[in-house]
Design goal:
Strand content: 15-25%
Low-confidence stretches: none
Oligomer: single chain
Shape: globular
Mean pLDDT: 90
Distance between the termini: 5 Å
Number of helices: 5
Largest sheet: 5 strands, parallel
Strand order of the largest sheet: 2-1-3-4-5
Radius of gyration: 13 Å
Length: 127
């Protein structure tokens, strides 16, 4: 899959992080859609098709772990799987474990390096 055709839902409540991630990834041709909390992300998923979700962990209204769990429940009913990467400033092994346990496919430490992002995309067979 050509990475420039990837449509990404960025679920991030921090405005500065939103701008930085959007600016960085748009330079590489990714199509980015935004939601600033998990509840809004679930609404966007109802009416849009995405190739990948970048899901922050700590957000108001509905955090990234609960949102991921809900997405995975919904997917099981439809026999689908949407890759979810959890970029977070939390760097403990226990944080990574919580992300994967909630159903995320991978975890990135913020601010993430673009080469690390592409490594994860390759790992998930998205490039």
């Amino acid at each position: 899959m050509d990475h420039k055709s990837l449509k990404i839902l960025l679920v991030e409540d921090n405005l500065l992080n939103q701008k930085l991630i959007c600016l960085t990834l748009s330079k590489y041709g990714f199509q980015i859609d935004l939601a600033d909390n998990g509840a809004k992300a679930l609404t966007k998923l109802e009416s849009n098709d995405y190739d990948l979700i970048l899901m922050d962990i700590m957000m108001p209204v509905m955090d990234g772990l609960e949102t991921t769990r809900q997405i995975r429940v919904n997917e099981r009913a439809m026999n689908q799987h949407l890759p979810i990467i959890g970029p977070t400033a939390n760097t403990m092994d226990s944080d990574r474990h919580r992300c994967l346990e909630a159903g995320m496919d991978e975890y990135l430490v913020k601010p993430f390096d673009v080469s690390e992002f592409f490594r994860v995309l390759e790992l998930l067979s998205l490039v």
